[in-house]
Amino acid sequence: MHPPLTIHRHPMCVEIIELFQKCHTDHPLGKFFGECTDLKIKLDKCFRQEKSLKRKANFEESKKLKDRLREHRIQNSETME
């Protein structure tokens, strides 16, 4: 199973999504018998790569936020004393 194939949510995988959707429309019965399996595998790989990049970016953003909060706490503890 894959996430909804909306192009605006998966900018890295636009070409593969379009090919996959075209395969499904061109082969309405063949899609049940593996006609589009190669594209599905490529699509899954692309989604994994995209998710990995997003995860790394979110982690970096999280580290920055934690650092800012830590600095803020230190400043507040110094002013309270």
UniProtKB/TrEMBL annotation:
Subcellular localization(s) per the UniProt record: Mitochondrion
Record bears the keyword Translocase: no
Main location per the UniProt record: mitochondrion
Record's keyword terms, sorted: Disulfide bond, Mitochondrion
InterPro entries: Cyt_c_biogenesis_Cmc1-like
Keyword hit for Cell membrane: no
A GO cellular component entry from the record: mitochondrion
Family as reported in the entry's similarity comment: Belongs to the CMC family.
Protein name as catalogued: COX assembly mitochondrial protein
